[in-house]
């Protein structure tokens, strides 16, 4: 089991403004799975991914990664967990506009003292961007920018890829290509979790986890 979630809750805000965004009794993701988290806007997809990736902490409950509890650890340990174990891909790419594609891919190595240029070039080739290493994000299409973001997510060779609406800003052809890319990474052994409100994107994954009002409904 790569991820196990027990009685996980997330409440945003306090008092009368409190929103119970997530309430998941039990959820397990196996190593090598490709899972979609789907459901209508506001059902808690982003919240669940952010908790699994330790970008945010839960209000209650526990998250285990390979049997080790990650919820409740200190910020230094969480930072290390995020950097070493998880690659993140976001809807809006979150690239640095002033940096080349290559330098964007290298960003995760900055806190480690740099290096890894050869690997970054290999990854850009893997995602189909050979020859475009020196382009800035503004000189790339949306689909190409998302490929840079996928290459960046792979730089430190994480076991888990979390992609939150990775096709949300793309037309259907570019979106399908990004999904193909994520599937090829899954075939190479990465565990992939994709949050999407798009039914077709969800159904192209090996497993579909449906949320409604913060709960897993199927
Ligand atoms: N920082 C926050 N403060 C307060 N409420 C929040 C916050 N983030 C999310 N929420 C609320 O929590 C619930 C779940 O939000 P979340 O972003 O996880 O949904 P989602 O399924 O990702 O939606 P979408 O498909 O629109 O991205 C929603 O009711 C949302 O309004
Ligand atoms: Mg969301």
From TrEMBL:
Keywords: ATP-binding, Nucleotide-binding, Transport. GO terms for molecular function: ATP binding; ATP hydrolysis activity; transmembrane transporter activity. The keyword DNA damage does not apply. It comes from the Bacteria. The keyword ATP-binding applies. GO terms for cellular component: membrane protein complex; plasma membrane. SMART domains: AAA. Residues 3-217 form the ABC transporter domain. InterPro entries: AAA+_ATPase, ABC_transporter-like_ATP-bd, ABC_transporter-like_CS, ABC_transpr_LolD-like, MacB-like_ATP-bd, P-loop_NTPase. It holds the Pfam family ABC_tran. Coiled coil: none annotated. This is ABC-type antimicrobial peptide transport system, ATPase component.
